[in-house]
Amino acid sequence: MPDKKNKSINPNYSLKKSRLHPPGYYIEGIGSGNRTILSQAITLIESSHPERRELGEEILEKCLHKSGHSVRIGITGVPGAGKSTFIDAFGKLLINHGKSIAVLTVDPSSSRSKGSILGDKTRMEYLSAHEKAYIRPTAASGTLGGVARKTREAMLLCEAAGFDTIFIETVGVGQSETTVHSMTDFFLLLMIAGAGDELQGIKRGIMEMADLLAINKADGENLQAAEKARREYENALSLLPEQPSGWKPPVQTCSALEETGLNEIYETIETYFNKVKESGYFEQNRKQQAINWMYESIHQKLKEKFYEHPAVQKKIAQTEKLVEQGKLSSFKAASKLITLLDR
Ligand code: GDP
User: By three-state DSSP, how is residue 229 classified?
Assistant: First the structure.
């Protein structure tokens, strides 16, 4: 029995029951900072239904001139490092500095487990209750590329709605860091002092992307261990090649729980932005990111076009069988399916 109440199981449910508005409704709503309408527009962007997605794209296109005026901060760290506690506490500090904050997540793990590592429940108590903050739970499931596109577009809509600081959070366990790095201006790696080898568990590639390493949970009995870890990471970072921005990533300690060390992190981020804006790197990096995303979007769209094509949908299961039975090579099968697009 299909569950008519469950929108995620029955795609027709949302289509029939919830009415779509003309683009102007969403564009105006976003422009006036209406977060309900912002959420509705993000849902359209995330939709796998072509009509809804098209509407989402139109809205995005017309909002683009209002986006871009923000700082985009990527944050990663292993589960339990304190990312959500940190964003909540740091967000509070930013709000006290007059900023407004949107928090988005890239968490492709949700496609595998349904329940995501980052979790859809509210993890940021302060921010979730604050009018200057907007938290969008993990994007709908899908491939990393798909989730990333949705997150990037959601980010642009949040900017158009007037949020001046965007946090994009990801779990430091896979490929998603590179993706988050490719859509943000500043990349913060949140670490904790652990027993044994301090560098264990976090890939060198992630360290190379970081603009700041923060050792969290520097409080109570953990204070000394955090300071020791700070020195070790500082040594490790000094061995890495220089960043394209010319920035030397510092290693700092903080406690998200006790809200210490956060002012210092704020100052570091301010210094970074002043420096890269003055040197021109900020603009140049954003331009390069936009070009990269154009290619990324081409790949995504081609993929969607392929899998949504009726002839492909009709033939794909049957072709898969032939490959499984060894009657057709994988390469030939792919070529045959791709030629169906020309029909
Ligand atoms: P996430 O998985 O990286 O988002 O981590 P959470 O923010 O959910 O934190 C995981 C656990 O660490 C929670 O029990 C937090 O209360 C705790 N925690 C987070 N930050 C700190 C900190 O600065 N000090 C201490 N002692 N605990 C912290």
Answer: helix
